[in-house]
Design a protein that fits this description.
Blueprint: H1 2-14, H2 16-39, H3 42-60, H4 67-89, H5 95-120, H6 122-131, H7 133-162, H8 171-212
Helix pairs in contact: 2-5, 2-7, 3-8, 4-7, 4-8, 5-6, 5-7, 7-8
């Protein structure tokens, strides 16, 4: 256990620049998402909020998406996203796409939260905290770790391509890479559980309370 903790600390220490870069990239996506909300015209916001309000109305009337459907849909979405990051990390040319995917994920979160808060104010902040925050508190670190590992492995392959010295075999790092991504996919199932049975239920209860007022 102590050896594993030491290896983890050494890994983080040796690649902290990459992890910091990925965190900044993700935060930049969130900021851009929020900026886009503020740059939208009144008509654009009203058109988009119209569809959101219709959904709220259906929820208030008792219409509800099955939690199992949300669980499977969410998990398969996360699994595909992580598998894509994993595959891109195996190819040097896929590295820029890893950056784009992480930026886009941050953008979606920033836009979603920013739009809801912009339209509903404090109520929107509570709604975002209940419906968006629970699963994202887990899935965001998973994506950042996945993107960082993909970048690290891709740069490792790049280094092996341009070095003349006899390097260590790639098989062991590859095995560790696949193992960690398998663990991350397993953890994404926990995020899907949170979305289906915590965030979904909390969101429905909050929306119904809004319409009862």
């Amino acid at each position: 256990m102590k050896m594993t903790a030491n290896r983890l600390m050494n890994h983080l220490q040796g690649h902290k620049t990459i992890y910091i870069f990925m965190i900044i990239l993700f935060l930049t996506g969130i900021i851009f998402g929020a900026i886009i909300v503020n740059s939208m015209s009144f008509i654009q916001k009203q058109d988009l909020f119209f569809y959101l309000e219709r959904y709220f109305g259906r929820v208030a009337d008792g219409e509800k998406v099955d939690s199992t459907s949300i669980l499977t849909g969410s998990f398969f979405y996360h699994m595909r996203y992580l598998l894509l990051l994993c595959l891109l990390g195996l190819s040097v040319i896929g590295l820029p796409i890893v950056w784009i995917l992480l930026f886009v994920k941050g953008f979606v979160v920033g836009f979603s939260v920013g739009f809801i808060v912009n339209q509903l104010g404090l109520k929107g902040l509570f709604l975002a905290a209940l419906s968006i925050a629970p699963q994202n508190l887990l899935i965001i670190p998973i994506y950042i770790i996945a993107g960082s590992l993909a970048m690290i492995f891709s740069l490792t392959l790049l280094g092996k391509l341009f070095t003349i010295k006899i390097s260590q075999p790639v098989l062991q790092p590859f095995g560790q890479y696949i193992t960690i991504f398998s663990i991350l996919i397993g953890l994404s199932f926990c995020a899907a559980l949170l979305e289906a049975f915590v965030a979904n239920e909390a969101m429905h209860s909050f929306i119904k309370s809004l319409y009862r007022v």
